[in-house]
Description:
Blueprint: H1 3-23, E1 27-33, E2 38-45, E3 55-60, E4 65-67, E5 76-80, E6 86-91, E7 97-101
Antiparallel strand pairs: 1-2, 2-5, 3-4, 3-6, 6-7
Amino acid sequence: MTLRALSKGLALLLCAGASSSVLAHNPMCECKAIDAEQIQCTGGFSDGSGAPGVTLDVIGYDETILVPGKLGADSKLTFKKPNAEFYVLFDAGPGHVVEIDQADIEAP
Length: 108
């Protein structure tokens, strides 16, 4: 085996390893009611990293944005529970989206 073939094989192996770690970077989001009026959502990724600055919008069933938001430095966003039916959209980019329906938000 030549040195060139060996280095090419090594480069392919490294690329394959890098791509599998990228696939393991799944978005995660959890929302809980703090009390009857406040909801707190926490976002992050399956590798344990946080998601500061990632978009987290509260959207009505008619697709209007009720509460536009971004996660804070602690990867959390607290908002007043809307009067209308809603869902939460955590959007960290293509392939990294989580939707949470109001029915799936934990009660206090």
